[in-house]
Amino acid sequence: MKKLFFFLPVFIFILGFTTNKIIDDKLKNLLQQFNINEETAKSNIFYSVTGPSYYIPNVKMLKNLAVGDRISVIESMGKNIKEYTATKEFVEKYNQLREDRKPTLPDEPKYSAQLKEEARASFKNSIAEAEKSKQQMPKDQQAMFDEIIAVYKQQLADIDDPEKTMYKPEMDEYIKQGYDMQMDDYKNKVAEWEAQYPSGNPKPMIKNLINTFLDKTANINFEAKTVKGKDGILKFADQEYEYKDSQWKLYYRAGKETVTAARKFAQSWLTELK
Length: 274
Fold this sequence. Notes:
By secondary structure, this protein is mainly alpha-helical.
């Protein structure tokens, strides 16, 4: 199975049955070839709709179906998937996803008084560690630790020296300004999040995915010619198509009838969501 950025709900029958029924025996047999059970199908629907990575089964198998069967499968699956996205179960999963994607509130800042005490504790600890290490060294090597300890003690004293300390009132002003900027950014992100993921309403998310699919499939040249290379692999005769991304190539391989049916269903669903 292959992972791609793709609009599953109206294109491939991997998601199989999404309610407590099977469309028909033919479809059931197709699903069984992929060993897909109901829970797997539902999970795949959810992760397909929420994006951005979807996995696609054997496109060749779908293309080998008669055109009428391909269209029927896509329409049936699209209908079932649309029904599932309206269920309580799907909405509950969506709400959990919504919370998972909520912007993180910035941490409360540490102001100069707290930072000063943390620095004081750090220097005292460094002095104690250096003195301990000094006692463990031979007498002729202890002098080097005296120099290190002297530096730490001077830095400790400088904390309280108004002329040398970095922990001054103006420092708090800069800290507050930085925190205010973080909060403004957070509020903007929350507003975007609320617009993109309204509580209990997955429609905007679904509409976005449908629009992405329609954009991606708007200009597929199904008449593009392929040739077999020296390595035996089929490639496009026109390099312009050879450089297309894997998603475009997936739609091409699926065939015009399949993609057209998918687009028709997608456009109809999008109209209902507006």
